[in-house]
Amino acid sequence: MLNFSYYNPTRIVFGKGTIGQVGELAKGYGKRVLLHYGGGSIKKNGVYSQVVESLKAAKLDVVELGGVVPNPRLSLVREGIALCKKEKIDFILAVGGGSVIDSAKAIGFGTVLPDNEDVWDDYYMKGDCVVRKSLPLGVVLTIPAAGSESSTGTVVTDWENNLKRAVNSETIIPKFAVMDPETNYTLPAYQTACGAADILAHLQERYFTMEKHNDLSDKMLESAMRNVIAYSLMALKHPNDYRYRAELMWTGTLAHNNQLDRGRVGDWASHDIEHEISGQYDIAHGAGLAIVFPAWMKYVYRDNIDRFVQYALRVWDISLTFDDKDAIVEAAIDRLEAFYRALGLPVRLSDAGIGNERVRKMAESAMIGRDSVGNFRKLKADDVEKILKLAL
Amino acid sequence: MLNFSYYNPTRIVFGKGTIGQVGELAKGYGKRVLLHYGGGSIKKNGVYSQVVESLKAAKLDVVELGGVVPNPRLSLVREGIALCKKEKIDFILAVGGGSVIDSAKAIGFGTVLPDNEDVWDDYYMKGDCVVRKSLPLGVVLTIPAAGSESSTGTVVTDWENNLKRAVNSETIIPKFAVMDPETNYTLPAYQTACGAADILAHLQERYFTMEKHNDLSDKMLESAMRNVIAYSLMALKHPNDYRYRAELMWTGTLAHNNQLDRGRVGDWASHDIEHEISGQYDIAHGAGLAIVFPAWMKYVYRDNIDRFVQYALRVWDISLTFDDKDAIVEAAIDRLEAFYRALGLPVRLSDAGIGNERVRKMAESAMIGRDSVGNFRKLKADDVEKILKLAL
C-alpha cells in the first residue's frame, strides 16, 4: 500500500425532493450566481424551475449560460469565463451531468486565472498542473455517470483540434452536490447505459494497478462494481423505480470521489484512449469506454495475471480451475462484454460505425502533451494502435 | 433508501514516515497548540518526540496535557477546558487513540461554550444536541479502533456517576488525521484485538437496520467487515508486518467516517449497552462489544431474519439451506464468537469476571437521559436486562 492523502469536502444532499435546498446551500458563497446547464432537458423535466425558484427564494442574482453539449467544448468555456468576468459572478451552479459540471469547473478556475495564463494551454494541455484557486462551485446532478459532482477532475474538448484533455485538482472539488434520483426517471435508456459504463470504468481504472497489498480498496471497488452491474440493468428495465435509480446514482459518486482507491496508482489508459475516440468521432464517453476496456484488458492482462484472476473471481464469480488462469481471465472479459451488450452499448469500433481509417491518428494524438498513457502498463502510440485494432 | 446528507472534510495523511508533516498541517489554525495525549506510550515509541519536533519546526507554541485513560474522564475534560481558556489555545492536537481524540473533542467544544452551558449536562447528557462551534482539532492516530479521527462522535465517562455518554456533531470532525501504521507495531496484542472488535462493531451497528434497498451501503459494510476480520488476525500473528497493520488502520477510519452507511439508520444498541458495562467495570470498550454483540443478535434477529441471513452469507460464507434460516443465523453468530475468541477477547460477562450483580442496575442506567436504546428494535430496560443475562 502506497502512502496517500485523502481530502473530499463536498457536501452531498441526496434523495427525493432535495432540489429545493439548493438556494440555502448556495447562499453562503456570494450573491451573483452563474447557472450553467446543457441542452434544455432540465426545462422539460421541471428541474430548472425548481432550481430557479430556490435560488430566487434565497435572494440570489442569477445569470444563465446554457448550451453545454456532451464532450463539453472549450469554446463555451471561454464564453463562460468572459461572462463571469463581465457579470462579476461569485458562484457557479452546474445543473446537469458530468459535461455541465466539467464545463463549470473549467469556467470556475479559468475566471480567476492571472492574465498571463490560459485555461487550455497552461492547464488542460499540461498534465499534472495544480489549480491554485477557483470560483466556488455547486452541483445539481441529473445524470449518474462522471462522478464529477465530488471529484477533482474536469475533462474538456478543444473541438477545432480534436483534443480532449483533463485537469485534476483539489481546488475544483464542488462545495456541494444535490442528488435527487427521481430526476433520472426521464433519462433516455442509452444515456443511463452510458452512465453505467462510465461508473464501471471509473472503478476498473482504479482496480487495475501494479500496487500489491491494498485489499480494502480492492474489496470496496469490487463491491461498487458488483453494484453498478446489478442495478444498472435493473434501472434499465424499471426506469421509474426509485430503488434502482438511487443505487446507481450513489454508486456513481463513490466510484469517483477517490476514497475507494487510496494506497495505489490507478491505470486510466482506457479513459485516455477513449478520449481520442470521442475527440475524433464525438461518440458518448460511456460507449467509447465499452469499446476500449475489453481490448485494453486483452492487451495487458498477462503483465499481472493474478490481478485479473482476482477481478474474475470477486467481480464476475468465474468458477474455473486456477490451473488455467488465462481461461479465467478470458471468461471474465466475456462477461464484461456481455454486460455492455445487455446495456445496449457497442463493444467494438465497428458496432459504432467506426473503421480503421483514423486508428493511427488517434494513437499519435494520444501522445500529444505526454510520453505515454496508463500506469498498469505505460502505453506508447504503437500500443494504443494495437489496442484500437483489437477493438475494431 | 432514506434521504441523507454526507459531509466529511477531514484531511487524511496516511503512511510510513508521515508524522513529521503534523507541524505543516497544524500551522494554519493558530499559534497556540494544546498537545493532548494518554499515559506515555507515545514517549516510549518515539511518536511524542517526532510530533514535538514537527510542531516546533512550524514555530508553534505547545502546551501539554497528558493523562487520558481508556474510557476518557469528564474530570480531565474539565481540566483541559480550564487550561485552554487560561492558555488561550487556538488548536488542539490529539496524539493517541480514540480516548485521547474523544477527550480532545470534548475540550475543543467545551472551551468555546457560552458561560451558561455545561459540556456534560447540556451536551453529553442530552442525546441529540448540536454543537455550534469548537476549537479546531487535529489528530495523530496511534491505535486503529474508534474511528474518531474522522468521525462526528465523542464518548466521555463521568466516572463519579458511572455514566458514559456520546455527542455527535459535524462541528467536531477533526481537520486532519495523520496515520502511520508503523506506530501500531508496539501495540499490545490485547489492544490490537479490542480495536478490531470496535471496528467490526462500528460496521455491524451500521449494518443492522430495518431500512430496505440500500445495497451499496450493505456491500461496502460487508467488504469492510471481511477486511477487518481477515487482517486483524493476520496483524496479531505478524505484529510488525506493515501490510496487515495498514489494512487494519484504514479499515478503522472508513468504518466510522459515515460514508459507508448513507441511506439508513443504524442500530447502536450494542454500543449503548457496552457503555454501561465499561461505565461500571472500566473494561476495554472492544472487549465489552465482543460480549454484547452476540447476545444482542440472539435477542433481536427474528425481527428481520432476512437481514441476518444476508449477513451470514455475505460476511461469513455460511453454506446452509435457506429452508432453515435460524440455523444460518445461529452459524453466523457462532462464527462471530469464534472470531472474537481467536482475537483473545471475552464473549461472555463471566469471561471478564463479571457476574449478575449489577445487571439490573446497568439496564436501568442505560435509560438515564433517554427512553430506549437501539433502532433495529427499540430496547427498554427489561430488554437490556435480558440481553445482559444472555451474555452472562
Question: How would you sum up this structure, described in words?
Answer:
The structure is a homodimer of 392-residue chains. By secondary structure, chain A is of the alpha/beta class. Chain A has 2 domains: 11-183, Rossmann fold (3-Layer(aba) Sandwich), CATH 3.40.50; 187-390, Up-down Bundle (Dehydroquinate synthase-like, alpha domain). The first copy, chain A, is built from 14 helices and 9 strands. In chain A, the strands form 2 sheets. A 6-stranded parallel sheet of chain A has the order 2-9-6-5-3-4, with helices on both faces. Chain A has a two-stranded antiparallel sheet with strand order 7-8. The two termini of chain A are 37 Å apart. The mean pLDDT of chain A is 97. Chain A binds chain B through residues 1-18, 213, 215-216, 219-220, 222-224, 226-227, 230-231, 242-243, 246-247, 250-251, 254, 259, 262-263, and chain B through 1-18, 213, 215-216, 219-220, 222-224, 226-227, 230-231, 242-243, 246-247, 250-251, 254, 259, 262-263.
